[in-house]
Structures
1.
Amino acid sequence: VTGGGLLIVEDDPADLELALHAFARSNMTNPIDVVRDGAEALEYLFATGRYENRGSQPVPRVVLLDLKLPFVGGVEVLAEMKSDPRTRNIPVVVLTSSREDSDLIRCYDLGVNSYIVKPVDIDQFLRTIAEIGVYWMVLNERRA
Amino acid sequence: LGAELAGNTVLLGDLAGAEAAVYSWQADAATPEISLMGRGDASAAIAIEARGIGKEHFDIVRARLATLQTGINGTFSKARTRSLALQADLTRLLFVALGLLALSVSLLVLLQWRWVLKPLRRIRDAAGAVSGGALDETVPAVGPPELAALGADVERMRARMVAEIRFAQDAYSELHRAHLLSERAETLRQLNAQLETVNAVVLKNSLDLEAGNAQLVAANLELEQFSYSVSHDLRAPLRAIVGFTRILTDEHSGSLDSEALRYLGIVCDGARRMDALINDLLAFSRVTRSNLERVDVPIGELVDSVWPEVNASSPTRYTLTVLAAGVVRADPVLLRQVLANLLANAVKFSAGRDPATIMVECGPDPEGTGQTLITVRDNGVGFDPKYADRMFEVFQRLHRTDEFEGTGIGLSIVKRIVERHGGRVGATATLDEGAAFSFTLGPLSVADDSLRPAMDLTGNPTTGDATPESRPSDRPDGIEMVGILAGFGAVGPTRSGSGQ
């Protein structure tokens, strides 16, 4: 657990592995942390519970957030992040299977930075993951 | 006689004279002769006689009696005459008295009539009128004092009676009003009770409705959650199947033989079809839930904008003709989906035809519903008309998957959208000759251009293979009018696009 890199919040092992596979294929070298549910994501972000010892480690450059998560849903994680000054400025990219308008609207109302629907087509999926990595980890300038 | 003649001095004098003469006769002649005869001395008696003393005396008596008689007769006659005159006077007097009596009786009757009967009649008339119901008829106090008093008394009685009646009437009407009021109150109470019952029913209905609504909302929410699950949960394993199959074929093909790779292809194909089904199901559910926003939609323009999308991946060259395009009032997004689905079907099932012709017709519903009938016609493979009714059922397919791809949901979506617009769908076909799918929508708008003469605007169909990117240049910028189409009622300007 390093921080300062990419945080993936994903409970589906297949999707997670595909995403990690895509990052690996795109030769992205930034550190990637993985949490498997919303509760763990919040603990990671606010250095509590299981991540108590993380202290003031650098916050992730970007959070890839699935919406449908056990315990605490993605929307709730997003809401917590955007309402806390410590995490408000971390870019959040929702990466989900849901194309539902209600999810889109809720996420944008909460201040999501990007909303991407996971393509079923594997080529598109791999390409999309790679592009997300490049865009947010390389192209996007963080707030100082 | 002296008593009879008392008062009549002349006759009494005459009587006295006659009596004196008689006494003289008696004394001088009669009495001496009788007394002489009585003593038998007839000769002395005759002698007396013979000297004529008797005769002399008697003549005086006679004369005096005659005078008396004459006097009596005269008196009698005078008295008789007077008596007769008196009698006549009396008779006259009687008549006069009788006349006076009659007059006074008449006068009395007149006076009685004038002073008694007439006022009495007025009083009686008034009283009669009062008793007949004309209670306000005043009884006059007229006539002689007694009558006037009677009239006044009757009038007082009437006035009192009237007052009593008025009072009774007032009391009655008061009572009646009270009764009416209480009746009205009773009616009101009943109405109120009914209202309360109705209210209770309405309340119950509204509660039921609320409950139903809540159920509906819950059902909708459930449906939303269901479609959420479908879109999320069913897709994740699909992505895994497709993803790892792809990774296998891409990165591990060296360790797989050709049969294994073919199987992987089948796995991948199945996953793709599954994905298409999920997408269509989601679209179907979205069609059910989305709000209708009706605006004026020009059919021709909509067809033009949909057309490039639906025939993009088909290698066949199509001729698209739009007949009598008008403007309909519909939800543009949903109507676009209807046309896209129907045109995609037409493209799919007429693929390989040469020429493949697709026609969109738009005009008044011939069944007279006042709606607009829109028909998409193709000259493709068609289908057995006996299955026409089943065309619109979910997942119903009339072709084998290896002949034509498809999920069997497209026409269900069409049907659902059209029915949400209050229209109906229909399909006709001839096996191997073509099919026509039609639907109705609200009436053509007033701004409709379908009243213009019919004409066929034929675009320039490009020949050969054209990529989707080249199609925009194929838009009918070189429109030419080729003639008037017959056999289509109220046709308007037609447009023909083309595509490959």
2.
Amino acid sequence: MRRRLLGLCLLAFPRRVRRTEGPVLLDLADDLVEHGASPVLECLSLVRSGVAGRLGVSGVPVRPALDRLALPLAGFLLAAFVLRWLAFLPPGEAWPGWSLALAVGGSLAALIGLMLRRRLPALLAVLPLAACFVDAWRDLYSNGGSRWVTASVNVLPALAPTAAIVVAAALAVRAGPPATRAAAWTVAGAAALVLVALLIRGSTAPGTSVLAAGGALALALIGAGLRDRSARLSAALAIVMAGPAFAWIATGWLGVADWMLYVGLYGGWTALALAALALARHAAR
Amino acid sequence: MAEIREATYFVLAALIDGPLHGYAIVQSVVDLSDGSVRLSAGTLYGALTRLAVDGLVEDDGEEVVSGRRRRRHRLTDDGRAKLLAEARRLRASAAVVESRLGATAPAVSS
């Protein structure tokens, strides 16, 4: 069963590589799992390596790039969900609902896990990610509708990419000294973001916050990326984070039909993913 | 000269004493790094592929051990030179910091 699973993950590699390297790679992964390595992480590592080879981005410094983004994005995610709790609930309601409560709790746990460099609590970032998809499903198919949607902003394009990057960062966490100081700055920054957003509540929404935060982060990292390969990849990820929100808001401004919003969203997402891929390829050199 | 990442540095170091297969490299890297670097199969494959493209390691044949196919890899002369250069660079960087810390030893040791 384990070997079959690892063999399945090998499909991520091009056929040419599978033919020449497949059996050796499979035996190596199997050996490592037999001697205590996590089968999940070995599978993910094979898939990552295979996909990176197919895309021509092998050698991209993924771990340092995620390390660089992990705390700021976890802090931003927490701020965005707290902001939604504080600012966008119907008047008179104190309880935000289970999905938003889990999203706030998961974001907080992820921030603490990343600060302490513990993978298990950090992986609770899957809660806000799952909550984004649950909310989107309710928005589209449930009679009650979404409790999260406000104005023309949809939480799925706005926050799911950020949550996905935090989950990826949580998977890459390695044991080490706690990043207490960095976490303190992150919490301070997140609190300031919530405060400012509440002060200008009339013109604020998570989508525009994501756009502003992602854009600022990408610009800063592209500047740093002129000297540093991992920063170039961090910038690519920040663009991916802000891209869907940008596409969603831009198509909303144009006042187009609903189906065109989705075309704009997924088209914009694809275009920005390609741009990020080009940046990542640049980072691989 | 391009930077060498920590994992790559230890992969090259693992091959100093002679050719090793993938699993032995992973074990050796854990020992050499005092447990701080643990390579997965995909990561090791990526590192070895890049090192082979750069001419720093090369294949040294295959063998079957306990029914498992294992490919040995060995350090090239260029790989040895690169590793030596990186070790010297790290030593020089450490010396700068140590000498500066030495100048402020009372504050550091208290």
